[in-house]
């Protein structure tokens, strides 16, 4: 039910460019819950086009920023701030971490200045508006959201709540080159609640800022299924699918190396990969696959729109989803596979083990698993009896139905935004 409340949603890019595909579903529930939704994508530039449609009560603040390497350096130069530098000097952390803190805070400040100018020019809210601020990431968008709240409160607006989700890179300090993420306590102390999408993320934040742990609780994302029952897969041969951006931490080379061993052992297979990446690295992966695998045994689909992914799974009758990433939040790609009753082989990182239960709906592996051992896991699953395989398929679908349904998860999340109960 709509009301007299306005939600300000801070994203990196959505609904521009690509990424943050999970919001394509959630935004519909948010727009049904709030009378007005304002999306502020803080990392878009003037060359990016809007790629996702939104409801009529959703408006977009078109903020043009430059977060390229050159742009980030310019932000640091043009927004030099001695007071921030002096405060960071007092922190009991290493010099490299202090540099990271300074970089993060100055970049956030520079981004906020651009957002503030556009917000004041383009957004005119009645003074009696009840405002809710929702940061999609516990990083740059959170810092901008905190500054936005201060700005609105100074202008006598009522900001009812400010919350943030937390996913992967924005909460997993172990995946960072310094094993450190900046401003954790500051961000959390200025949020009403922070909602990691995984138990791993929840534990990470509570361990880092134990005095504020009551503000942290898991709220899972959700996906929609295009089926109301599980599929029975014939599982006649190894038919693998993977879905991710093409970048080093996704370990796509390991999949290629594993399938190369399939060929050496005369094992029939087919593999399709959905997703793209930076042109140079994607070309490198394509070249590597061409060198190691037989043409026709694999196919790179490139970027596939979120709404089309599951139709590919259905039309191609794939039998197994694979993800050997080094870092994850709770992987939406695995959630989508479950919604199509696909068993999964996935690396036990981040929040993956929240949903993949070894031997029940899939198989968990160490992300450092060798191609030889990974192949054995694939063969083991593929050699299950039809009854055992379809039991695992059923369990995959039941996992989606009970834990990962977008309707259940997003409706509950929207109600919590309004009610204030964690």
From TrEMBL:
What is the superkingdom listed in this entry's lineage? Answer: Bacteria
**UniProt xrefs under SUPFAM superfamilies:** UDP-Glycosyltransferase/glycogen phosphorylase
Q: Which Gene3D superfamilies match?
A: Glycogen Phosphorylase B (3.40.50.2000)
Species of origin reads: Enterococcus silesiacus
What's a Pfam family this protein contains?
Glycos_transf_1
Name the InterPro entries on file: Glyco_trans_1 (IPR001296)
Q: Where is the Glycosyl transferase family domain?
A: 231-396
Alphabetized UniProt keyword annotations: Transferase
Full protein name: Glycosyl transferase family 1 domain-containing protein
């Amino acid at each position: 039910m709509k009301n007299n409340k306005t939600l300000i949603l801070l994203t990196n890019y959505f609904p521009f460019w690509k990424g943050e595909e999970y919001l394509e579903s959630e935004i519909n529930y948010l727009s049904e819950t709030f009378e007005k939704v304002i999306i502020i994508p803080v990392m878009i530039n003037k060359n990016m086009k809007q790629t996702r449609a939104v409801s009529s009560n959703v408006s977009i603040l078109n903020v043009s920023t430059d977060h390229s390497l050159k742009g980030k350096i310019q932000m640091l130069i043009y927004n030099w701030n001695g007071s921030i530098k002096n405060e960071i000097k007092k922190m009991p952390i290493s010099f490299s971490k202090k540099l990271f803190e300074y970089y993060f805070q100055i970049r956030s400040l520079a981004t906020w200045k651009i957002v503030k100018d556009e917000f004041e020019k383009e957004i005119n809210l009645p003074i009696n508006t009840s405002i809710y601020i929702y940061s999609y990431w516990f990083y740059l968008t959170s810092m901008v959201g905190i500054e936005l709240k201060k700005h609105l409160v100074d202008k006598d607006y009522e900001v009812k709540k400010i919350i943030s989700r937390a996913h992967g890179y924005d909460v997993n300090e172990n995946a960072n080159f310094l094993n450190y993420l900046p401003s954790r306590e500051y961000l959390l102390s200025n949020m009403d609640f922070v909602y990691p999408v995984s138990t791993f993320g929840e534990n990470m934040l509570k361990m880092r800022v134990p005095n504020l742990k009551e503000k942290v609780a898991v709220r899972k994302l959700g996906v929609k299924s295009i089926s109301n029952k599980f599929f029975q897969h014939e599982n006649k041969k190894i038919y693998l699918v993977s879905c991710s951006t093409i970048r080093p931490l996704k370990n796509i080379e390991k999949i290629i190396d594993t399938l190369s061993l399939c060929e050496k052992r005369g094992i029939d297979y087919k593999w399709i990969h959905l997703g793209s990446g930076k042109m140079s690295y994607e070309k490198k992966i394509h070249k590597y696959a061409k060198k190691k695998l037989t043409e026709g045994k694999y196919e790179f689909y490139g970027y596939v729109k979120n709404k089309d992914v599951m139709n590919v799974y259905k039309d191609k009758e794939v039998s197994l989803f694979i993800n050997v990433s080094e870092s994850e939040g709770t992987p939406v790609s695995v959630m989508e596979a479950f919604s199509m009753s696909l068993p999964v082989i996935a690396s036990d990182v981040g929040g993956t083990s929240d949903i993949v239960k070894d031997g029940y709906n899939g198989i968990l592996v160490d992300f450092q698993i060798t191609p030889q051992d990974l192949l054995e896991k694939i063969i083991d699953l593929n050699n299950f009896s039809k009854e055992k395989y379809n039991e695992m398929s059923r369990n995959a679908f039941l996992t989606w139905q009970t834990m990962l349904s977008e309707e259940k998860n997003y409706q509950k999340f929207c109600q919590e935004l309004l009610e204030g109960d964690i």
